[in-house]
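Objective 1b. Sequence-to-structure analysis of Phosphatidate cytidylyltransferase.
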Amino acid sequence: MSELRHRRGEGDENDKAETAGESDQVDVDSEEEKVLEEKYVDELAKNLPQGTDKTPEILDSALSGLSSRWRNWVIRGIFTWLMIGAFCLLIYGGPLALMITVLCVQVKCFEEIINIGYAVYRVHGLPWFRSLSWYFLLTSNYFFYGENLIDYFGVVINRTDYLHFLVTYHRFISFSLYCVGFVWFVLSLVKRYYMRQFSLFAWTHVALLIVVTQSYLIIQNIFEGLIWFIVPVSMIICNDVMAYVFGFFFGKTPLIKLSPKKTWEGFIGGGVSTVIFGLVLSYLMSQYPYLVCPIEYSESLGRMTMECEPSTLFRLHEYTPPQFLQPLMKIFGRETITMYPFMIHSLALSIFSSVIGPFGGFFASGFKRAFKIKDFGDVIPGHGGIMDRFDCQFLMATFVNVYITSFIRTATPQKLLQQVYNLKPEQQLQLFYALKESLENRNILNMVP
C-alpha cells in the first residue's frame, strides 16, 4: 500500500510538473501572441486603404488653397450630393434596381469587413480563410434570398416542376451547404493557430449577421412598399448630413469618446432636422400609389405589380390635437389636423433614426479604433468605404422590419395562398373542405350570387 501511495505521489508530482510546464508554455505563447497582435494591428493600419483623405487629382488641385477643415467640407459635400443623386436615379429605376443595389452594397460591405480579417490571414498564413468566408456568404444568400423568393413568388415557383423540389427542400439544401463549409473549416485547422482560426470563424459569422441578415430585411421592407424603404433610408441620410452641418458650425460639446468629432450640438440639430424632414417627406410620398402599394405577384397579369387601392395608412384623416396644443391650433384658426396616418408612424421612425441610429456609427467607430484604422475603405472620397456610409442603415433596416411586423403587417389572401400551395395535395383538400364547411355554417357561402 505504501508503495502504491508513493507511486501515486510521484504521479501527482509529475502531473503538477507537466501542468506547470504547460502553463509556462501558455504564458510564452500568450506573450508571443501579444507581440504578433501589436505587429498585426500596426501593419493593418498601414496597409488597409483609407478614403477620407483620398481626393481626385482635379479636386485636389482646385482646393489646394483651402485649409484641411474646409477642404474636407467641400469634398464631403460634393460626394454627398452625388450619392443623393444616384439614390434618386435608383428610385426611378424601380424595385429591381434597388434590390440589385442592396445586393451589391451587401457584397462590398462584407468584403471591407473581411479584408480586415484577411490581413490576419496574410500575417499568419492561415489556410482557406478568404475562400471559406466567401463560401459562407454565398450559402447565406442562397438561404435568405431563397426564403424571399418562396414568400413572394411561391405561386409561380410551385407551378414549375424543377423548381418545386428546391422550394420543398430549400432549408434542408441550405443547411447541407452550410455543413459543407463547416466541415471544410474543421479540416483546415492548423494546430499552432487554433485560437486565431476560431476567432476568424466567429468574425465571418458576425459579418454575415451584420451584413447579410440586414440586407435580407431591407429586401423585405421594399416588398412592403417603396415608401418603407425610401423614407427610413432618407431619414438616416438627413440625420447624418445635418448632424455634420450642425457639428461643423456649432459643435463644441463632445458627445462620445468613441467618436471625438461627434458633438451634442450636431446630435440634437440632426435629430430635430430629421423629425421635420421625415414628416414632410412622408406627407409628399403618401400621395403616390406607386410608392405606397406593396409589391405582389398578380396571377391575372402574370407579373409583379405595384397597383392597389391605398390602405388606410395612406388616406387623409382628421385628428383632434391633444389639449395642450389647442391654444396653438387657435392661432392658426383650426381645431383639427388633416394628415396621413403614415406620418404618425414616420414620427416613430424619425425618432429611432435620430436617437438610436447614430449608435450604429458609434459601433463602427469603436471597431475601427480597435484596429487603428480611419475608414473601412477608399471607395468614396471624403467618406471612406461603403460600410462607413451604411453602418447606421443596417440598424435602421432591422427596426423598420420589426416595426412593420409588430404594428403594420396583416395577413393577405395572396400571402396565405402562397403558403397553401406549399402544402401537400391531400392537405390542400382538407383545408378546402374545412373552409367550405365553415363558410356554409356561417351562411357566407350562400350569400354569394
